[in-house]
Structure formats: C-alpha cells, structure tokens
DNA sequence: CTGAAAGCGCTTACAG
DNA sequence: CTGAAAGCGCTTACAG
C-alpha cells in the first residue's frame, strides 16, 4: 500500500492459482474446456490480486480491441454532437465501444489524427471528413488499410473516395423542405448557405432550385446568399444584408438549422412576423430547433438512420475483413422526414 | 495490390535497409546516435514499404501512448461539448491527444467505461463523473491506479474521492450572478434547479441564499423550484408552474443556462417583458446563450481555465507517476466571470 | 482438461 | 555508431 505496487499480470495469477498463464487466459475469456475446480481457483486468485488484463497486450496479440473510433470535425457544432451520440448508440448495439476524436484544426492536424493516435488502437473507423476530400482521404487512409482497419465515411465530402460511404438524400430532402415553404404560399424564398466548396451545399442548392423549377418560379440570384461558415451568426448576417439590400422576401431556407436559427433571430429582431410575413425553414432538426420562438420547421435528414447504416457497414467489414474486394464501394443513403413547426404556414 | 498485403513491420524495413530492427527503431524515433548514411537508407526503406509503426506494440513496450481519455456524461449537452473542446485544446498544448468517451447510461455502463475500453490504452484520464460519487469513484478507479494511469476529476461530484480535482467556485459565482439580479432591482428572485443529489445544485443554492441574505431579503420557499433534470424543458416547465401558482416574481436565476433559456422562453411566450418586468440569469455561458432573444445574462464559470488546470495537474502526474503520495489531493478552482447581457437591467 | 512454446511488433539497456 | 538479446503481457495453436 505504501510502495506503489506493480499491476498484477497473468503470470502472477497463474503462480498463485498453481496453473499456467494459458489456463488463466482461458478462464478469463470464458473458454469452455476448463474444469470447474480450476476455474474457481483462478477466479479466486485473480480477485485476490485485483487482476485486470492489460488491454494493450490483449489487443496486440488478438488483433481486436472491441472499440471503434469516430472522427468528427467539431463537437461545439450541435449537429456533430447529436450525430456522435447516434453513432455511439448504434455501436453499442454491435457490442462496440466508441472513442471520439475531434478534428477542429487544419489539414495537417486532420492527417495526423487519421494516421496516428487512437485510430491505431481501434478495430475500425467512422469518419466525418472536414478538410480532406475524396481521393486525398484514400491516400491518408492507406496506413489504416495496411493495418486492416476498415473505414466508413459519413457525410458528403468523400465523393471520390473508395471507402464505403453513408450519407443523406440532400437533394430530395432540400427539395421537400423548400416545397413546404411553397405550400405555405411563399414565392420569394431566400436560400442561405450555398458555396462552391465540397460538401452538402451544392446538393442542397440543387434541391432548392428543383423545387422552384417545379413550381414554375424563376431563379433569382438576389435571393441566393452564399456563406461558407454555417453558423448562427452567418445566418443572422446574411438575412440582415438581405433586408438592408431591400430584396423582397417571403421565406428563408437555411441550409442548416444554425443558419435558419440565425436568420430567424434577425427577422424577429427586425420586427417581422414569422411565419405571417416571412416563413423560415432549416435542415438538420437539432434538438434546439424545437425550442426556438417560434419553433423552427426543418427536415430531419436521418441522423440516427445514417449512424445505424454506417455501423451496419462497418460491422460487416469487421467480420469479413479479408474477403472483400478493396475496390468495392458500398454507399447508402438515409431516409429523411420533413418536420413542419411554427415558422411555416400550414398548407391549405 | 490484388492480394491483401500484410502491413510492413520493423523487421521488413530492417531487412530491406540491411540493418537491425533496433537501428530502424532508433532512426524512427530520431535517436541522435545514428550515422547519416544509415539514417537515409532506413528512411528510404521505410518509405518504399509504406511502413507505419504499430502504435499498439510501441505503446505496450514503451508504456506511453501520448493520448489521454476524456470521460464525459453526454455530448448532446452543450456544456459538456464546450468543456470537451477546452480539454482537447488544453491537452494539445502538452502534446497530448484526447479520446472522448461518453457515459450517457446507467451506473454499470459508467463502471465499464472506466475499467475497460479506451481507458486501458491511454496514459491518463480526465473524468467528469455522472452517476458515480466520491468513494465509489476511488473503488472503480483502482484498476487504473494499479496500471499507473493517473486520473483527474473535473466537476463537483467527486467530493470524497482521493483523486485530484478541478472544479468551479460555485458558491461565489452563484452569489455574484444573483447579485447582478439584485443590482438590477430584483427583490423576488426565483431559483430554478436545486435538488438533493450530489453535484453543483447545493453550492449554487447556497450562493443564491448568501446573496439574498446579504441584501436582507428573507428566503421564500415558493420561489425555490427544484428540478433534477437541468434541461431547457425543465426550466420552461418550472417557470410555467411558478406563473400558474400566481407567485410574484421579478427575476429568475437558472442554475444552468439551459434552465435559464427554458425559463426565458416561457416568460417571453407568456407576454412578459424581459428584462423590464422579469430579469433572467443563468450559469455556464454556453455559446448559444449569447444568441437568445434577449441575449442571456450569465456567469462564465471558467471552463477554459478549469480545463487548463486539469491538464496541468494531469501532465504533472504523467511526469512524476511514481514519486507522488497516493493520498495527496490536489484540488483547484477556476476563476469565474459574470456576464451581463440583455436579460438583466444594468445597475444604477 | 492443462501446459510449454511461440509470437503479436515494438523498445530498451547492454555489449561491442 | 550498430546489433543481439530480452521482454512488454497477453493469446493461440499444438501436444499430451
């Protein structure tokens, strides 16, 4: 107690129980072919010594840790926090633990997280790329592939990658939520959030335009307000500029809930009636959105579904790590749900 | 390329470079006593084979992984998400990676996260307890201690534990924010969030009562509204009940920002003027709070400071793992800042 | 049912 | 400056 004791090893337990380390190992992993008497003796010895197997050694020898890593851009962003919770939930259904690693940095940091660190200790990876794009991802993940660690991509940035991917029906969901606005009588819908970079912005713009097109409404570039940062402040500012420019507008579609929430706050502060004068809709269905005033209409893209699909694919790869054709891409899309709330007018 | 290649090992590199594995190891860890010629040959061989050291083996042998685990209750809760980001930032300043593990479950799950899983692969632990209390924590962490993995507790639940702890000045901060309400002219301040269970509720109630006492205002139990869940909905409901009960109130102190935000939304929906008729203040300074309408007055308890202190203590233990007296408790408290915003009236 | 041996892939003194 | 040897703590066939 006074001198720091070395942690007990399997050999200590074996010696105390009067058996071999192999037998201790068999008892501890519930191997059937061990006599009850031996089993009891080993258990007692292990208890007495407070023995806990060294997970590092076990993992090195067996090649399995029972844990996967989830690599996400940023937990301060509620979308990723909620998605992470879904991934953790889905993993537990497969008996897998999750270690979350956060990127929140530059490209070099993203590369170092993927090549080193925790990802080296895990059996598989669910990866939501931040700065890296399709083919770069494949290059960086070469290391993981060499070590037989399967990777599943979650989100839209991995387009050209050879990794299996799970994503959302961005075009369709975006179109559906735009149609909710149209059904409420909107004719001049601002789109907040498009940009040129890879990711969800392009398909969401496409869905928005498709809805307008189907309704016979021509595209008006004055209503399309680019923002690369999809934060609350960007949404607030984009709408403030829209109003300052004197652009006529009767609805706002934020490409994610944060943008929509920022837009909503600007509209309310400006004294406009939502949804009377201006309707608002977002994309993501964050928990917070239900509590906005008025409650934000949005589309739930299928976070839980996507997390479930990602784990289904990953669990499959974990089982059949050697047989698969490395070129085979297994891509799946989650189901979405439009959620009308207080910021939209109900259809007639 | 067609048959899955085994990952290259240090022996493969050694063979190709015509040296011993020990030399390869020395080159890769930038050991100085290696000739430039050998160094170049080893580097070339490693590149050619796409060699990446097996972190598991390295860690087993060297006893260091360069990663710590952060164990937190729930990432959906913005407070923990923001705290996690601060811990990650602080760790990077010590050259440490962070693997986040989420509890979000029952006691048994909390125990299993602490004893097994990723915590077995890391050099140290920053742990924000959820269900476990002081002495139980020590029992569960016996395993980590045996393996010489230092643990630092973050938060208020570990009171009786022998682990070093970092926390907030709950009483003082709570008193200071209550005094902000008093300075704005409040006399009937509701306290939302007290409960009997371990944690921050008790000291925050104490701070609230101390402020009232100093101002010569008697305690009124009708204004003290217990809630165990510190969510937005609980805050909204508590205030709704307060209003329904016809209790006279001119200010609300939510024991965290989520409660305050819920309270604020109920007040605004009820048509009350904030801060004209009722002032509101919270505790935590979540990013979201600055964007409420009106912006929420609150107290920043020192999340970044606490994260920095936790890492300072942990880094110290990592350096001096054997010399320390296991009974020594190193507790530190973070500095707080009162943040007046739109939900309080400025003092005269 | 149990044990001796080999080995997972590294790093660490220790010789030379 | 470089290499042979031992060993981190386990698990895994393989004998018996």
From TrEMBL, chains A, B:
SMART domains: HTH_LACI. The keyword Ribonucleoprotein does not apply. It comes from the Bacteria. Keywords: DNA-binding, Transcription, Transcription regulation. GO terms for molecular function: DNA-binding transcription factor activity; transcription cis-regulatory region binding. Residues 8-62 form the HTH lacI-type domain. InterPro entries: HTH_LacI (IPR000843), LacI/GalR-like_sensor (IPR046335), Lambda_DNA-bd_dom_sf (IPR010982), Peripla_BP_I (IPR028082). Gene3D superfamilies: 3.40.50.2300, lambda repressor-like DNA-binding domains. This is LacI family transcriptional regulator.
């Amino acid at each position: 107690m006074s001198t720091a004791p070395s942690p007990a090893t399997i050999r200590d337990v074996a010696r105390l129980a009067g058996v071999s380390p192999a037998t201790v190992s068999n008892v501890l992993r519930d191997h059937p072919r061990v006599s009850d008497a031996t089993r009891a003796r080993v258990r007692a010895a292990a208890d007495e010594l407070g023995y806990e197997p060294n997970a590092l050694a076990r993992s090195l020898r067996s090649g399995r840790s029972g844990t996967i890593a989830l690599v996400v851009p940023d937990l301060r962003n509620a979308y990723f926090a909620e998605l992470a919770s879904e991934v953790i939930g889905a993993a537990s259904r497969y008996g897998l633990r999750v270690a979350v690693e956060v990127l929140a940095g530059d490209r070099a940091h993203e590369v170092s997280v993927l090549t080193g660190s925790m990802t080296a200790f895990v059996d598989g990876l669910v990866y939501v790329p931040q700065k890296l794009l399709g083919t770069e991802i494949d290059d960086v993940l070469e290391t993981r592939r060499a070590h037989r660690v399967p990777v599943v991509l979650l989100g839209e940035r991995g387009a050209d990658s050879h990794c299996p991917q799970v994503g959302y029906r961005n075009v369709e969901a975006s179109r559906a939520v735009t149609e909710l606005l149209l059904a409420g009588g909107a004719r001049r819908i601002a789109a907040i959030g498009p940009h040129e970079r890879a990711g969800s912005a392009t398909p969401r713009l496409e869905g928005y335009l498709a809805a307008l097109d189907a309704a016979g409404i021509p595209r008006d570039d004055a209503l399309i307000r680019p923002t690369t940062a999809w934060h609350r402040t960007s949404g607030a500012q984009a709408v403030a500029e829209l109003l300052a420019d004197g652009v006529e507008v009767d609805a706002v579609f934020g490409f994610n809930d944060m943008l929509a929430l920022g837009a909503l706050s600007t509209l309310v502060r400006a004294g406009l009636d939502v949804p009377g004068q201006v309707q608002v809709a977002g994309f993501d269905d964050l928990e917070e959105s239900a509590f906005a005033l008025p409650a934000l209409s949005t589309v739930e893209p299928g976070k839980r579904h996507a997390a479930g699909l990602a784990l289904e694919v990953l669990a499959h790869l974990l089982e059949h790590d050697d047989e698969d054709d490395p070129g085979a891409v297994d891509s799946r899309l989650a189901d979405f749900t439009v959620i009308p709330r207080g910021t939209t007018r109900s259809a007639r």
